[in-house]
TrEMBL record, chains A, B:
Domain of life: Bacteria
Domain HTH tetR-type: start-end pairs: 1-55
Protein name according to UniProt: TetR family transcriptional regulator
InterPro entries assigned: BetI_C, Homeodomain-like_sf, HTH_TetR, Tet_transcr_reg_TetR-rel_C_sf
A Pfam family of this chain: TetR_C_6
Amino acid sequence: MSEAVWNVLADKGFGGLTLRAVAAEMGVSTGMLMHYFPAKRALIAHALDLLEKRTAERPRRERPAEGLATVRAMLLDILPLTADDTARNRIWVSSWDLALADDGLATDQADRYTRMRSALRPHLEAARGLGELPAAADPEQLAATAVAFTHGLVVQALFDPGRFPGDLQIAMLDGFLASLARPQRSGAPR
Amino acid sequence: MSEAVWNVLADKGFGGLTLRAVAAEMGVSTGMLMHYFPAKRALIAHALDLLEKRTAERPRRERPAEGLATVRAMLLDILPLTADDTARNRIWVSSWDLALADDGLATDQADRYTRMRSALRPHLEAARGLGELPAAADPEQLAATAVAFTHGLVVQALFDPGRFPGDLQIAMLDGFLASLARPQRSGAPR
C-alpha cells in the first residue's frame, strides 16, 4: 500500500493524492481502501509519514572529512541526482502547498529547516576553524544560505531536468562552495 | 471576483482553491459562481492568469545602476519583504504542486525560470566587465545560482517568517552577492 501511495505522490503530488488514485494504483476498490483510510486526512498523514521515513532512511554518502567537504556531501545527498532522489524531492516540493495552508504542518516544515541548518552549522564552524572560510563567516547565516541555494536548485532542476543534469548540479554546488571559500575582497559592491 | 480568488489562494493555496471557498469568500452561492467557472479547471486557469498578471504588475525597485547593484535590485524584488510580496510568493510556491503534476504547467514554469535567468545574465556579464566578478565567472551558471539562492530563501522565509525578517533576508542576499564578488582563492576545497 505504501508503494502505491508513493507512486501516486511521485506522479501527481499531494494535489492528486486521492483514495481513488491509490485504489487504482493498487488494483483494488475505493471501498476496500476506506477500511484503512476512513478520511482523506488519514491518507495524507500516512503519505507524510512515508515521506519522512523514506527521507530518513535514504542512502547517504560517507562523511569522512571535516569542514566544507562534509558540507558538500550533505548537500549532494539532497540534490535530485538519481531517480529516487528526484521522486523524493518532487514529493517534498509538492507537500509545501499543503504545509503552507496548515499551521501544524507549517511548523513541522519550519522545524525541519531548523534541523537542516543545525546539522550543517558545526561543519561550517569546523571549516572556519580550518581556514576554509573567512574568519568573519557566520556559520548560522551560511547554513541558511546553503539550504536556500540547495532547495532553490532542487526546484529549478525538477522543472527542467534536461537543463539541469546531475553534472551541472554538482558543478553549481562546487561553484557555490568555492565562492563561500574565497577571502573577502575590500570594496565588494553593495 | 479576482480579489476573492486571490484571498483564497493566499490563505489556502491551490490545494484549497474550490468553487465553494471562492463563493464563501464572495458571499454568493456556489451555483452563481459556476456560471463563470463551469469546471474546476477554469477556476485554476483564472487563478494562474491572475498570479502571472499580479507578478508582472507588481511595483519594482528602480534599476539605476549597472552590474551587481542591478542584480541586487532584481533579487530584492522577488523576496517576501512586504505582505503583498509574501502573499504572491506563497501562491507561487503553492502552484508548484499543481505544475509538477501537469506537463503543460511544468513547461510554463521551466520557461519562467529560463526568463528569470535570461533577465539576470546581462547584468552579471556587465558585473564581470566592471571587475565586480572574477574574470572566470560564468554568467549563465551564476544566474541559475542566484535564482536558486533567492527561491530557496523565499521558501525558508515563508515557513518561518519570525526567523527570517526582512533585514535578515537582505543581509543574506548581500552576503551571497559579496561571496560571488570575492576574487578566487587558490586551493579552494572541492
